[in-house]
Amino acid sequence: MKKNLKIEKFNNFASNNMIKTRFCYNFLPKEKLFNSFSIKRAKFPISPTDTEYSELDISTANISAIKGITAFRQYFPLNEQTIYRILLYGDDKKVYIHQLLMGINNLSWLYKLTFEQPPIALTFKQDDLDAIILADKEKMVIWKTNDIPKEITDIPVITSMCMNDGVLFCTIQEPAFKIWYASDLNAEKVGATSSTSGYISLDDELGDAKKVVAFDEDVYIIREYGISKINYLQKNITVSQVYASNSRILENTVSVCGNLILFMTFDGLYTFNGTKVIKSDIEIKNLDGINKGAVSSTINHYYFLALRLNFEKGSPVGMEGENYVNNAILVVNTLDMTYQIIKGFDVLAFYPLKTDLFEKLLVVSNGEDKDKLFEICFNYNDGLIETEKFWSSEELTDDRRTKLLTSLVVDASNEMSITIFWDDKSATFETYKDGVNSFNFRLACKKIRLEVSSKNKNAELNHLSLEYYEY
Q1: I want to staple 140 with a disulfide (CB 3.0 to 4.6 A). Which of 135, 262, 454, 455 is the partner?
Q2: What range defines the domain where residue 24 resides?
Q3: Is residue 457 part of a domain?
Q4: Number of domains in the chain
Q5: Using one digit for the tens of pLDDT, what is the confidence trace for 169-181?
Q6: Which of 170, 176, 251, 172 is nearest to 207 (CA)?
Q7: What is the dihedral of CA 40, 100, 188, 210, to 10 degrees?
Q8: Cβ neighbours of residue 286 closer than 8 Å, sequence gap 6 or more
């Protein structure tokens, strides 16, 4: 009996799609395979009227690597002016500042501030004025609008912070079962018990508190093995258990994206809507090691997760040739939970930046060009990394009947390689023109699998089909 196996969808999200994806990177797998997200050097306009964007001039900062980044806005009511600022932490332990859209393009050392490690940051408002907190293992610095930064040293080591309804909540390094709070936004009171500050003790089996997250007018504690909710009512604070996990939550993968919190454990990617935790259908395959360096962030309705994967095909690309920490970025569209993988970039940190003129997801690199800022590129054609694109299917047939493959038809643009795996053999075919390419052969087998790859930046695959006789 003659049969035609036609692949017109390359993802696992359509309920009527019988072809399952085994692995895919640097392709966006939807109804066709085409250009994906990528990375490029971060560029900014010098002033609000500039049409040309340029990279930051870091020659005034004596650094060989950027180790941390944050961004914030400050509104000055006296002159009704809003200033957007980027803070960079260098390997010289100094904090550098860049004033966006102010007619300058360089960095300057911020009030001679230094930190022993990349500080965590939290922006907030107090008395209708914008402020930022920076904290590392030795101290906290509070910088309020129209003031100089204030250093505070006699506090616990803060590991995460969030604000909600005028209350500052913090997780601390030791003891990690305590959550400190200051109800009057006075961060100086963290670590001291008073009428407006104190701590909450966690005494259940969910493990240490790793992160506090403000979400949907509530505050949640990300624990090693679950999620707790802080209930704060008229200075009466209690904690309730929301979710218990069988696998350890990687706290640096926790990010709020619209009406969801997303996070990764060793057994998959999860979403939390404030009521229920759901394991997504996204299969994070081939996790490489314990992924201590995995980090995430969000912009618009996209969740970006940098992690380390063990790719089963292809030679090292991009920053994979070095002693990398991460080698892939998982991009999830939270509107429909479709996803793709960018291979070949080693991410140290993400940071979303939004101004009145533009918004970007900034990226700090672990690998090459550590002294440069990058950004997520929403169009692969504009990206910096030009690497092999790859897609592979699971087994296309689930029976053991003998088949005789007779032809392969490929509808593609630009150079594309298609490899047919049958039983323990394989053959690769190269497209020879844009549009429909046909290949004829006679291959007897029982099992069939396909792989598609291309090194062309603009390669696209619309569909392909296999004709065969089954006996």
Answers
A1: 135
A2: 2-35+390-470
A3: yes
A4: 1
A5: 999 999 999 999 9
A6: 176
A7: -10
A8: 23, 309, 310, 311, 312
Q: With left for phi above 0 and alpha for psi between -120 and 50, is residue 424 left, alpha or beta?
A: alpha
Q: Residue 400 and residue 105: Cα distance in Å, rounded?
A: 65
Written as one letter, the residue type at 53 is Y
Q: Which residues contact residue 456 at a Cβ distance below 8 angstroms, ignoring those fewer than 6 apart? A: 414, 415, 416
What backbone torsions phi and psi does residue 187 show, to the nearest 5 degrees?
-65, -20
- 383 is a domain residue: no
The residue whose two tokens read 């087994």 is 395
pLDDT of 18: 60
Omega cis (within 30) before 175:
yes
Q: What is the rounded distance in angstroms from the CA atom of residue 189 to the CA atom of residue 186?
A: 6
Which neighbouring-strand residues pair with 73?
84
| DSSP secondary structure letters along 390-434 | EEEE--S--S---EEEEEEEEEEES--EEEEEETTEEEEEE--SS
pLDDT per position as a tens digit, 26-57: 888 888 888 778 888 999 999 888 888 899 88
Cβ neighbors of 334 (< 8 A, separation 6 or more) are 257, 258, 260, 262, 271, 301, 302, 303
CB 229 within 8 A of CB 240: yes
One-letter amino acid at 342 equals I
**For position 438, which CATH number holds?**
2.60.120
Q: Is 3 helix (H, G, I), strand (E, B) or coil?
A: strand
**Within a domain: 433:** yes
What are φ and ψ of residue 122, in 5° steps? -145, 125
